[in-house]
Write a structure and sequence with these properties.
The protein has about 100 residues and is mainly β. About 10% of the residues lie in helices and about 50% in strands. It has one domain (about 5-45, about 65-95): Beta-lactamase Inhibitory Protein, Chain:B, domain 1. It contains one helix and nine strands; from the N terminus they run E-E-E-H-E-E-E-E-E-E.
Length: about 100
């Protein structure tokens, strides 16, 4: 599925439940069910993080990024949810579903 990102929103309604950025992946799946499509990858930072006490090397495991797509049909927009390490990081909408 090729998706062009149209706009960014901050919440998603699944039935009577409201999903917000920061919610857990478990809460989203419980409220909205399984996504229509999904993908995942690891994102690594090549930079050493500097702070007052010295420096912290980049995480060896990287962040787990998961993207879930919900297609609720032709009367609603397609929602693209991006999770970072199990927390909802971003909600975007695309065109109407099919």
């Amino acid at each position: 599925m090729l998706v062009g990102f149209a706009s960014t929103s901050f919440s998603l309604r699944c039935g009577t439940k409201l999903i917000d950025e920061g919610d857990s992946i478990t809460k989203v799946r419980g409220a909205c069910g399984d996504p229509t499509d999904s993908s995942s990858y690891r994102e690594y930072s090549p930079y050493v993080i500097q702070h007052y006490g010295g420096s912290v090397p980049p995480a060896e495991e990287g962040d787990l990024i998961e993207q879930w797509i919900y297609n609720f049909g032709p009367q609603r927009f397609v929602y693209i949810l991006t999770f970072r390490n199990g927390r909802l990081d971003e909600i975007k909408t695309d065109d109407y579903g099919d």
